[in-house]
Amino acid sequence: MSLDGQLPPKMRLLRAAAELLAKSAGAPVSTRQITQLAGVTAPTLYHHFGDKEGLFDAVVAAGFEEYVAGERDFAPSGQPLEDIRRMWDNHVQFGLNQPELYLVMFGNIRPESRPAIVADAEALMEEMLNKAAAAGQLNVQPREAARSILAANVGVTLMLIAEPASERNLELSTMTRDAMIFAVSAEPASGPAPGGTGKSSVVVAAIALNAALQASHSDQLSSSELKLFLEWLHRISTSPAG
Amino acid sequence: MSLDGQLPPKMRLLRAAAELLAKSAGAPVSTRQITQLAGVTAPTLYHHFGDKEGLFDAVVAAGFEEYVAGERDFAPSGQPLEDIRRMWDNHVQFGLNQPELYLVMFGNIRPESRPAIVADAEALMEEMLNKAAAAGQLNVQPREAARSILAANVGVTLMLIAEPASERNLELSTMTRDAMIFAVSAEPASGPAPGGTGKSSVVVAAIALNAALQASHSDQLSSSELKLFLEWLHRISTSPAG
DNA sequence: TCAGTTCATATAGCAACGCTATAGGTGCTA
DNA sequence: TAGCACCTATAGCGTTGCTATATGAACTGA
Questions:
Q1: How far apart are the first and last CA of chain B?
Q2: How many Å apart are A34 CA and C13 C1'?
Q3: Fewest CB atoms within 10 Å of the CB: A136, A225, B86, B108?
Q4: Using 50, 70 and 90 to split pLDDT, how confident is the model at B216?
Q5: Whether the Cβ atoms of residue A56 and residue A68 lie closer than 8 Å to each other
Q6: Which of A137, A146, A141, A98 lies closest to A118, judged by CA?
Q7: What is the mean pLDDT of residues B166-188?
């Protein structure tokens, strides 16, 4: 029940802290747990890391190496915005794979004291956005874009971590991701714009849906279902009190 | 040095906790501090609130009242999306005005345990988005839109709180805000949804009708008919591509 | 070779923490 | 007046982060 291999105590402390942090389902990890698992006593921890936070910072630094490695671990696709998309997804996945570590890294917010890790992550994203800017694909400054995208990325990841694993819906991530990337990109808008000048009445909405259904050929309903659906739609849209 | 007015101990505890929380610049607040300021002893706290977290939850509940009041404290502009914008700004301002309280409310993330406050805030935003949907101004489900917008809103607010007050740049907020609102909106002049996956007018119309039906109480269909009708409507409005 | 110095670890314990077993006081109802 | 429910206090438990002090090991210079 101890990590007393040949490694020096400093390493054993780091590994013990990381391991306990990963296993502790949100519960706080005590220095006594850590030192016991590492097979050392309290003063050793404070000799090497100053205090508990110093140890955690060191663990975070190691975690950040892994994070950065993940963020770089794919060949540039040649499309910077596509790479940003992958960075986003990697960020979310990192958070979901190691939620405790992620919370220490990005969730441990204190007023007026910015974790260094956030600045690093921003720099990483800004670097990638610079390529997009160089390719004329950005309509805002890379730094502002990076801050904005990262803020949303962290917000989404925190939300997903807070949800029960069974209810997690990654569509929240992809939707927010594409919204942010689209907003900073300079791609010329193309395609038809849906018309939605309707008022809030049920009747108007039903009529609009009716017209839209007639025009398109949606196959979400079978023909018999569609027939009945249209009949009800008609009944609603001819309702006197909308 | 104590809040021992005529108020009952329960109230004094609540006020003491709120006051210490507001003043403690990020530092943790102990139960001993709270009980001393309130002029009571430890068991009183645990009698009324169960444990420390229960007391904090009560403080948060009071804070949430204030938050909700702020979110509703403006006359509806008639333009739901403009109201969403104001909700966003109010959210950020609330966080910057009371960072400690905000961090307890939205920053205290633990894996797999969602703060009730988040669900409430989502419901609040979803309510507003329903109006936008009813007006045909949304191209995604109000619930998904609310989750996405709120996630980004929280992320931005946390980032701003973490920054030194002198460096805070609210443009981060407005930029992210407009990006999110634009992404979920179906405004004609605005172009298609991000990524080129524009929703067809059928989907927009179906979402609008759905919202309108929820809002009104049309009796044109029987309850069993309505149930099936809504199910089909859902199938249409979640269709991957019109 | 050996005293002097530095580094690294252990023993033991402090103050503060969240929390509680137990008991006493208060005010209401019967 | 008796009984009961509610509320608060005394005192203290176990755990927390951290440290004053001491001991051993390794290196250094004469």
A1: 66
A2: 20
A3: A136
A4: low
A5: no
A6: A146
A7: 89
